[in-house]
């Protein structure tokens, strides 16, 4: 019996790593659905080597281009528009959904998979930051099993007893310790941060990832988002989550228990490892990734994050503690500011200024339904856009 898999965001970094793991185990998985947004070249490459039943172009503007290539892939059914993806998330042929779309754009499709009670392999951390309580409650209602793909949360999950379900409290837990590479500017002088470019910020020392998460790793906002993600996935408060800079990215996170034991998961910095763990769960899948060799491991370093120069972790912690719409505002402002930095409109340090400004200017508002979240998200984006424009003019 094979299991049907839908890969949302198949053209991205997580999507491609997922397709590689699936291709190594054709006896266990069938590729039912993939989605692409703008990267048509990558989509066509994927179709040369993989045979999904359905392809969804979440950006319908590419429908005409797709039409000119459709005859080359007669076995594939093409669809256009995000709503098709949300519908296919609920198909009885889909058992596992890999939520690999980046940013708030992934919220609805992730929710659709959770509402349909699927096994959801979650990379789209922004969905949890925006709407974590909602997503976790819905998973409990429908029986959807959420398995974290983010390497830190996957490491924590691997350290927990078999049978542990995300969203439950962890017996005997003292602390979760998220490791953080420190990003490309870990040792850079604060004064030099003013002049760093998007190309420099995208040069992550250990991981190869999409542009948005690479910038988040450089500002350390990625760790801030992950702190919030951990609170939702493992039912902990921010005070129970510590962050340690570990430049080698060999230990992917740790769990400290009340008896003084600390469990950790180690491995190469390769997303195929957490992806394979979650796809195969509870069985391990063999994959051809670099192995850690203890003979080559000379040093495991640990440092305290430079919070004064990289305020994002503490901003995220405060946003979660403050509750209501604060994490959503943090996330939307950050997405807009990161896009502006990538376009060359603002400098690196202005990313955090814009996030802080949005949090200050928009009053705290409770939000309880997805529609309110979408509206609030749009408000934040409008404000962040005007702040970017004002900073360009000043
Ligand atoms: P990429 O930028 O590489 O890929 C993003 C994917 O989302 C692409 O398939 C892209 O399509 C699609 N996409 C972009 N915008 C939209 C939109 N508006 N609507 C629908 N689809 C869209 O990102 P990553 O793979 O690096 O990251 C994906 C998610 O996984 C993020 O949330 C990230 O934080 C998380 N993550 C990533 C890790 C990594 O190693 N890369 C590690 C841990 C978490 P297209 O390219 O066709 O435009
Ligand atoms: Mg991570």
Characterization of this structure:
This protein has 15 helices and eleven strands. The chain has two domains: 3-149, Rossmann fold, CATH 3.40.50.720; 173-266 and 300-393, Orthogonal Bundle (Rna Polymerase Sigma Factor, Chain: A), CATH 1.10.1740. The termini are far apart. Helix 6 runs parallel beside helix 10 and helix 14 (348-361) packs across helix 15 (370-393). The chain has 394 residues and is an alpha/beta fold. It has helices at residues 13-23, 40-49, 63-69, 82-88, 107-115, 125-142, 151-158, 198-202, 211-219, 221-234, 272-280, 312-322, 326-342, 348-361, 370-393; strands at residues 3-8, 29-36, 54-57, 77-80, 96-99, 119-122, 145-148, 173-180, 241-245, 251-257, 262-266. The model has no long low-confidence stretch (mean pLDDT 96). Helices cover 44% and strands 15% of the residues. The longest helix is centred in the last third of the chain and has 24 residues, at 370-393. The strands form two sheets. A seven-stranded parallel β-sheet has the order 4-3-2-1-5-6-7, sandwiched between helices. It has a four-stranded mixed β-sheet with strand order 9-8-10-11, covered by helices on one side. The site of NADPH dihydro-nicotinamide-adenine-dinucleotide phosphate (NDP) has 28 residues, from helix 1, helix 6 and helix 9. NADPH dihydro-nicotinamide-adenine-dinucleotide phosphate (NDP) binds next to helix 1, helix 6 and helix 9.
